[in-house]
Structure formats: C-alpha cells, structure tokens
C-alpha cells in the first residue's frame, strides 16, 4: 500500500524536499511569456494594414491619390487570412513534432521557425512575399503549447497553483 501511495500522481512530497527554486521560477516565468506572442501578433495585423507607409510600400494604394488599387482589398484579405491559416498549421504541426520528438524538440522547432518567419516578414519586398511569410511567422505562437506542459511538469504538486498563476 505504501508503494502505491508514493507512486500515485497525487503524492505530495514531504515539506523538507521542496522542488521550489528561484531558477525554476525564472525559467517558468520566461517560458510563460511565449503565449503573448500570439496576442501581440494579432494586435499588430490590424494596425499594420492601416499604416499609410505600409500600404504605399506594398503597392496597395496609388501613390498620387492614396486611393486603393483595384486588388487592394483582395491582397489585404489574403494577408489577414494567411495570418490565421499559419496559426492552424502551427497547431497541426506542433502535435506531430511533440509526439514524434518530445517537448524539447518542439520548443526548439518553435524557436527556429519563429526566427525564420520573423526575418521573412521583415524582409518582405512585395505582398506575395509578405503573405508567404505570414504562414511561417504565425505558425509559431500556437506552437507555444509545449511550453505550458513543460511548466506544469517542472513544478511540484505543492506549487501547482503558483505554476498555473505564472
């Protein structure tokens, strides 16, 4: 009976063997910032598509009259749609990567994809390149789910409320 209790997932360690460390707190706090990436990106889409300099650079408005070009609404719609299509691809990709290679590989995959997508988005020279980069750039925030699992497994059951709050 004693072994069953010790091996149960609800077993609480004695108070003298706390797994709380300041290092764990710092790591879990920094990892918990990853989901902010999606909220930030969502807020940037609408403000970016409303900037006159962006519209001029991408050729979505006439430089002399500032009137929208004939295909401006279609291109802006494609930019917005690819943003969320990339998020769906991220959800589908994350489950495969995590199941196949584990959470650490999933986190590494997210980081590399994030860097590549961000560089592509910043270097976009035309609407086509910007739309293609959205697929890579926006697939990353939804890949942040392995971070949450890592946080919860890294904390002891006594500190579960703290890890959930972080």
What keyword list fits this structure?
166 residues; elongated; transmembrane helix; transmembrane; MFS_trans_sf; Major facilitator superfamily (MFS) profile domain-containing protein
Give an account of the 3D structure:
The structure is a single chain. With 166 residues, the chain is mainly alpha-helical. It has one domain. The chain is 69% helix and 0% strand. Helix 2 packs antiparallel against helix 8, helix 6 runs antiparallel to helix 7 and helix 6 packs antiparallel against helix 8. The longest helix is centred in the middle third of the chain and has 30 residues, at 72-101. The model has no long low-confidence stretch (mean pLDDT 74). It is found in: Membrane. It comes from Extremus antarcticus. InterPro entries: MFS_dom, MFS_sugar_transport-like, MFS_Sugar_Transporters, MFS_trans_sf, Sugar_transporter_CS. It is a multi-pass membrane protein.
Strand proportion: under 5%
For the biggest sheet, the summary is: none
Distance between the termini: 35 Å
Number of helices, counting only DSSP H or I runs of 4 residues or more: 9
**SS elements, strand count:** 0
**What characteristic shape results from the CA principal axes?**
elongated
Structural class: mainly alpha
Query: In the residues, how many domains can be counted?
Result: 1
The rounded Rg comes to: 22 Å
What is the string of SSEs from the N terminus onward?
Answer: HHHHHHHHH
Unreliable stretches (pLDDT < 50, length at least 5) are none
Mean pLDDT: 74
Helix content: 55-70%
Summarize this, please?
The chain has 166 residues and is an all-alpha fold. Helix content is 69%, strand content 0%.
